[in-house]
Specification:
This protein is an all-beta fold. It contains two helices and 27 strands.
């Protein structure tokens, strides 16, 4: 294993970014920048051993401004949406930025963790490498109470497992719901639509939303709906219901929270994805309670990606492990409140392999 570092350009406000690359024994690698903790590339082999990045990304840090779809970013303090930018934490009413259409608070506000410069410590290992990223969010930042100290550890192994461990502690009761917003395409970055990918979600229920993609409070059984992805389903076949199913129309396709079935043995399988074209597969494990499945329905790139052109809708899919959106306003949901002095500690693993079987 080895870690290399090189300049990655300059942000609009003049900060110099770096790009760290963790390379394993087989030559597969993961590229991460200290700007926003962004995952720029995950280079893994196809069935013929050819390496290609399976996430969308830009050739330099300049490509990530303006924000377009939060590509590859580390999201916080709170991933996903909070209705009307309003909530109450331990009796304190919070007023947060309505940075999505003037209606909802999205992905941490006007300047979330995806815009911060993270302190990075590289640790080379024998069978895995680690990057430890740290950021301290001051009391009141983006309207959130408490000084929140965050540490995110990215690990890449010789088995082509990419592990993200999220840790945080606050000196006041606050909200914390950290996630990653990578857009995956197992055929390779820039290869076009992900509609021919097959997905299986280990989820019996999904979170019903209104026309603004805010939860109504209902957790609906997936049976008999386009959200029944418990058996491998071609993504494009599911998306055919976008114009006929009300929930699908609200998200312009899949942009919904799914509740992960809990086997009570630590990390659960959240999702499995297969790409028959390349032979690549990805399995997602997590101890978070839910995952947002999003098919880049509204992705319209401004700057050219690594493929040399701007990205278009449905060129990638996101699997954002998380607490459900707007959970703070729904006491019936698992809670995203982080109480003073308690530790936030969750892990997600993206495991890459060669497997074009669609058997259950």
């Amino acid at each position: 294993m080895s870690i290399s570092v090189k300049p990655f350009g300059v942000t609009p406000d003049g900060r110099e970014a770096k790009l760290y690359t963790m390379t394993n024994a087989s030559g597969a690698s993961v590229e991460i920048t200290d700007f926003g903790g962004i995952i720029r590339a995950i280079n893994v082999p196809d069935r013929d051993g050819k390496l290609a990045s399976v996430v969308l990304g830009y050739p330099s840090v300049e490509g990530y401004s303006p924000v377009t779809g939060y590509i590859g970013a580390l999201i916080g303090r709170v991933g996903n949406r909070i209705a009307n930018g309003k909530c109450t934490v331990s009796g304190q009413e919070l007023t947060l930025a309505k940075n999505e259409g003037g209606k909802t608070h999205l992905h941490g506000g006007d300047i979330g963790f995806d815009r911060k410069m993270w302190e990075v410590t590289p640790l080379e290992g024998i069978c895995n490498d680690k990057l430890i990223l740290k950021y301290t969010s001051p009391d009141g930042e983006e309207g959130y109470p408490g000084t929140l100290r965050v540490m995110v550890t990215y690990t890449f192994t010789d088995d082509n497992e990419f592990v993200i461990q999220y840790e945080a502690v606050s000196d006041k009761d606050t909200l914390c719901n950290l996630t990653n917003h990578s857009y995956f395409n197992l055929s390779g970055e820039g290869s076009g639509s992900i509609e021919d990918h097959y997905i299986r979600l280990n989820c019996d229920t999904f979170t019903v939303v209104d026309a603004d993609c805010i939860p109504t409070g209902e957790q609906r059984d997936v049976t008999g709906t386009p959200f029944d992805l418990r058996k491998f389903t071609r993504i494009g076949d599911g998306l055919k219901a976008t114009d006929t199913d009300e929930q699908m129309s609200f998200g312009k396709g899949y942009d919904h929270n799914f509740n992960i079935n809990d086997d009570e043995f630590g990390l659960n399988v959240a999702a499995e994805v297969r790409d028959l074209k390349s032979g690549r597969s990805m399995t997602v494990f997590t101890d978070m309670p839910a995952v947002q499945f999003y098919c880049a329905n509204m992705l319209n790139g401004v700057n050219p990606g690594s493929c040399g052109r701007p990205y278009t809708p449905r060129e990638g899919f996101c699997l954002e492990t998380q607490f459900a959106p707007d959970s703070i306003n729904h006491p019936e949901f698992p809670d995203s409140v982080l109480y003073a002095g308690e530790k936030y500690d969750y892990t997600t693993i993206f495991s890459f392999d060669i497997d074009d079987s669609l058997e259950d």
